[in-house]
Design a protein that fits this description.
Oligomer: single chain
Structural class: alpha/beta
Strand order of the largest sheet: 10-11-16-17-18-19-20-21
CATH architecture of the largest domain: Alpha-Beta Barrel
Number of helices: 19
Shape: globular
CATH superfamily of the largest domain: Glycosidases
Distance between the termini: 57 Å
CATH class of the largest domain: Alpha Beta
CATH topology of the largest domain: TIM Barrel
Bound molecules: acetamide, zinc ion
Radius of gyration: 28 Å
Number of strands: 38
Length: 736
């Protein structure tokens, strides 16, 4: 027994020495190799930053990162070697990977060796994550001990493309936000910023040869509704310089042949009909796209690329390529003449021809085209990069043809989608089911079934922050704590913490990824976002147990955020920063009177943890779609009750929609249910049913056979209260 216990203790001791090092360091993405080494280094006012020739910008960047919070003015010195202070050098990073670095810390010296300046920059980011969270604060933090653990870290990324896409077209993010977003990316060693510069709803880059692209194409709406803006070429050069120093490659996207209406509004000759259009203020799939049959289209693009490449040094140019509808090409004499000349059978082949022309055009600048997965078709002359968003098969097709892929899958990477379906959750887009933090962490860019030999062709992953739904102005929910700088803060919220999960997916081999360990490390990062002034989503308190006893329900919660606290109410009201602080189990008489939130630094709080009792019992009928209350029931005459079906209707198949009365004096009578896709009716079930004290035929069945990714679905029911409008209930949907 004693021996056994001894053995157990020994084993526990071993576990404790080997495991906690990483847990204590809390670095995201998880570094490749970490060894604990001797005494810590303390950054002081006298600490000198020495740098090898050529690394002055990185040394200045480090000083600029450390100075505000520490209040120290660091002395920078170019030196071949140094035995004290912080030293930045290239070479000897322990890997041939250009982005690799070695960081060693002891009592006297912090040495960062990057395989290139990029590696040096990443060593700096790791160092910042090892310092107290207050290091990210822009205000001086008094009485701090700026201590860094003694360690040796050797680290390199798995994938070379660790990306984010910002849709600056549908919502114009000013230059300052873009620069700040680059900082957010750099914190997690993300290295590719794809700027969606053009789309139907706005052209955002100054092109000197075509001034109307921005004088007309960058603005939409009239009067007080008018919005827009664009980047001057100087702005974009500044963005490139800022990004380059932070190892971020900015890839510009010029969308073609579709999503181009802003430029067509500016120069109608670009489209088949030549008709005048307006820059749209609502998102829709425009039929008017660039004409493939006229040379003037290619002349225009050649001019645009010439100016684009003088600004963006990236070896890539993103050409969009998604969601082209061919109605106009089918009717256009120029397009049809071209099709005939080339002996092509379909309009899709015309798009391949379009892509080939563009490939040839950009080749002389040494550029590789990137496009949405639609561009991966037979016939591309040169190697291309497909961003796989809605069709995984295209990644396999790309690999077999020797093309590259970047995973941008809608199920993992569309950060404009909500993180949860909790009421009040922030989202920019509602056409997809929620993408939780854990879901992002489950992404593996090497898709299931992909042959290992294709690994070099899988470049990594990229998340999207689309803003097309922002311009509707209807989907975003207001949360009081982040209602200033509306869109920017919302985008921060959609980004953090999900980008940290994506960063680890792109950096750390799958074999070393552990969700629970990641969650543990992340628990310390929320306060870093807060200190840095970024918006972010706090998780709700975690429910550990819920036990029913004589007094009611005893609830045990866990706070999963370091530096935050849990506050709660037991009277059915939403908690705030003044509510009771949770410090141990709470007993409540009625479960659905209990609400708890996570609060950080008294100013940022999570969505509530609560028990939506009245809907729980309907779960067997599927997913919640909507609830009705007297305001939504017109009374004794049938009227339309409209529900959002996007994200609920998420594939072809048969569905059952059911109505469940919960309270009130009137039962709900239902006459019909109709399903609309992008405003067009695609299915219906017309029969009389009701739900009240009793129910009859309260299930409505319909079939979806032409599901389309990205389409908006709405559900319209004709309903009335049998006596008055005093009726409440819930609508559920189930896929059969
Ligand atoms: C896309 O979401 N249309 C690429
Ligand atoms: Zn045409």
């Amino acid at each position: 027994m004693k021996n056994k216990l001894h053995g157990f203790l020994l084993m526990a001791a071993v576990l404790f020495v080997s495991a906690p090092v990483l847990a204590q360091l809390n670095i995201i993405p998880l570094p490749e190799k970490v060894e604990e080494r001797g005494s810590p280094f303390v950054i002081r006012a006298q600490t000198k930053i020495s740098f090898e020739k050529g690394l002055k910008p990185q040394a200045e960047l480090l000083a600029a990162a450390l100075s505000p919070a520490t209040g120290f003015d660091f002395i920078l010195e170019e030196a071949k070697t140094a035995t004290k202070g912080i030293v930045l050098r290239t070479g000897n990073s322990g890997s041939a990977n250009k982005e690799s670095y070695r960081l060693s810390v002891n009592k006297d010296l912090i040495q960062i060796n990057g395989q290139s300046s990029a590696g040096v920059f990443y060593g700096i980011q790791t160092l910042l994550q090892m310092l107290p969270v207050e290091i990210y604060n822009k205000q001086r933090q008094k009485s701090m001990n700026w201590q860094v653990k003694g360690v040796l870290i050797e680290d390199a990324p798995l994938y070379p493309w660790r990306g984010m896409m910002l849709d600056v077209s549908r919502y114009f993010f000013g230059k300052d936000y873009v620069l700040r977003f680059i900082d957010m990316m750099a914190m997690y060693k993300m290295n590719t910023l794809h700027l969606h510069l053009t789309d139907d709803a706005g052209w955002r880059m100054e092109i000197k040869k075509y001034p109307k692209l921005t004088s007309i194409g960058a603005w939409r709406g009239v009067g007080p509704e008018r919005t827009g803006g664009y980047y001057t070429q100087e702005d974009m050069k500044e963005m490139v310089a800022y990004a380059t120093l932070r190892n971020v490659d900015i890839i510009p996207e010029i969308e073609l042949p579709a999503h181009a209406l802003a430029s067509i509004a500016a120069y109608p000759f670009l489209a088949c009909t030549g008709e005048q259009h307006e820059v749209p203020a609502q998102h829709f799939i425009s039929k008017d796209i660039y004409c493939v049959g006229r040379e003037s289209t290619f002349d225009f693009l050649a001019d645009v690329f010439k100016e684009t490449f003088a600004i963006f040094p990236s070896k890539y140019i993103h050409i969009g390529g998604d969601e082209a509808v061919y109605d106009r090409w089918k009717e256009c004499p120029h397009c049809q003449k071209k099709k005939k000349e080339l002996g092509l059978k379909t309009e899709k082949e015309l798009q391949v021809y379009f892509n080939q022309r563009v490939q040839t055009m950009v080749k002389k600048y040494g550029k590789t085209i990137v496009g949405w997965d639609e561009i991966i078709e037979d016939g591309l002359k040169e190697k291309a990069v497909g961003m796989v968003w809605h069709d995984e098969k295209k990644a396999f097709k790309a690999a077999e043809a020797g093309h590259y892929s970047v995973m941008s899958l809608t199920g993992y990477c569309y950060f404009d989608v909500a993180e949860s379906s909790i009421p009040g959750e922030i989202k920019a887009a509602g056409w997809l089911p929620p993408i939780s933090l854990e879901k992002v962490y489950q992404l593996n860019p090497m898709l299931k079934g992909m042959d290992e030999k294709y690994r070099p062709l899988i470049l990594g992953a990229s998340a999207t922050l689309w803003s097309d739904q922002f311009i509707h102005g209807t989907i975003l929910q207001e949360l009081p704590q982040i209602n200033e700088d509306r869109s920017e803060k919302y985008f921060d919220y959609l980004t953090f913490p999900r980008m940290s999960a994506l960063a680890e997916v792109c950096w750390t081999p799958v074999a070393r990824q552990r969700w629970t360990a990641f969650e543990q490390r992340l628990s310390t990062h929320y306060n870093r976002y807060d200190q840095a002034g970024y918006g972010y989503r706090l998780p709700q308190p975690k429910l550990i147990s819920n036990e029913k006893g004589d007094q009611g329900y005893t609830l045990k919660l866990e706070n999963t955020v370091k530096g935050a606290e849990i506050r709660y109410t037991t009277d059915g009201t939403l908690p705030n920063v003044h509510s009771a602080v949770y410090n141990g189990a709470v007993t409540v008489a009625k479960l659905n009177d209990f609400y708890a939130i996570t609060v950080m630094n008294s100013n940022q709080y999570s969505l509530p943890l609560y028990f939506p009792e009245k809907y729980e019992k309907f779960k067997k009928y599927g997913e919640f779609v909507a609830d009705w209350s007297p305001s939504k029931v017109k009374g004794k005459d049938f009227a339309v009750f409209e529900m959002n079906g996007s994200g609920k209707i998420s594939a072809n198949g048969s569905y059952t929609l059911s109505f469940w009365f919960t309270e009130g004096t009137s039962r709900l009578d239902i006459q019909s249910v109709e399903i609309f896709k992008n405003g067009q009716k695609i299915a219906e079930d017309v029969h009389e049913g009701f739900t009240g004290g009793t129910k009859k035929d309260n299930e409505y069945k319909f079939q979806i056979s032409n599901y389309e990714t990205g389409a908006a679905f709405s559900i319209k029911a004709k309903v009335r209260g049998d006596v008055s409008n005093d009726s409440n209930g819930v609508v559920m949907i189930r896929k059969n």
